[in-house]
Amino acid sequence: MLHNLLKAAQQELNLSMDGYHVAPGRSHGKETELHYQSLTEDDIPLFSQPVFVLKADPGIIETFQDTIPCPHGAGRYKICTATAHLFDNTIGQLLLEVRIDDITHPDTLLDHLDNWTTTACSQIIDILSPTETRLNTVLHRQTRRLRQQPLLRTPSRSGTFYDIQEVPHGPRRLLWVTRILNSSQLRSSQIDSWTQRKSDNPSFRTDSTSYFIHAGNSVIEGQISDAEVDQLLSALTICMYHYCIQEICNRNLGRLILETSDNPALSTSQASKINSASARLNLFKSQLHDTRLGLQGIRKSLSHAFFSAWNFGELTSSVAHKMEVLDHSVEVSNQLHQRKYNRIVEAILSVIGGTSLIGVFVSISKFTHNPERPEDSIWGLTDIVEKLSVNGTLYALIAVLAITMYLVLKKNGS
Asked: Is this model's pTM higher than 0.90 or not?
């Protein structure tokens, strides 16, 4: 299915995306799985592996370089590759491979490298934004197919594409995050002395070295350990998991509210579902707070990483809004049930106070049809029997009253 989707997407994009290649994401090594038990949704693991890879041709890359000045401390640079990893159509990652030549002032280069890389990535993201919009349009056209079939074997990926046309404030931009890696063609001793003792390296030759960096929205200076790379991947995975959980909540809540909006009488099972969803959202809300603290700890443990702040505020407010909707739905449900029970009591009292069988049938008729208050009406006696289980009480009262009236009439007649 993924192959067919990509083939169809490529056909639609051929005329409007010259110079780009859309391909399925492939793992370049061992997949990183985050075991974070408190955020597990039905024990579904989430892998930090992109679904789509959007790669620019060399001709497109040259246009990037025309708009981005050379970093301070270097004579020239070349963007070797520019790749966008799309985990779904809400999260994207930009990965650059840049070769910096003729390094004249290593200290100056390092001091300005982070700002230069951030500027370069921002400009490239702006250049990619029309492509991003077109890609979202293609995904929107295939929404029905995506909803009917899982995109990947991992269930956590199914349905993570949302309909961009349904966003209330217009098309939503990708949340650009990054998996930041760094490499160099310098020997290890040279790169260590460069990053740790930048001013104490007289043997460093600036005319024959090239520095390769893999950078995203931020850059890491120097080498990082495998443990730090794992922490970076875990931090990214936590962020992706939050947004996937949010999409799961959106779908489940939307379906629940849709099921109940047209039906003024909530069944016990529906009320139970709403209560369960409310409890799960409460749990998720508390876990989100714990995870934010944990992610802050991960940031602090990375000695050379500079993270952009994750936009947790929007997610938290979204969860809070869903809680308000749920609370209102539960309150309305309770009011409906309470009104129905009150009307049952009224009907029973009216039956008991009746003086003839005509009064009994009139009371039952008013109870089951009641055109004056249709919003509270119960749809016939069958509905009462199924949902409120009061058939035994009603029939017993009717039988007792009928026998009593029969005996009274018989005694008076005799």
From this structure: no
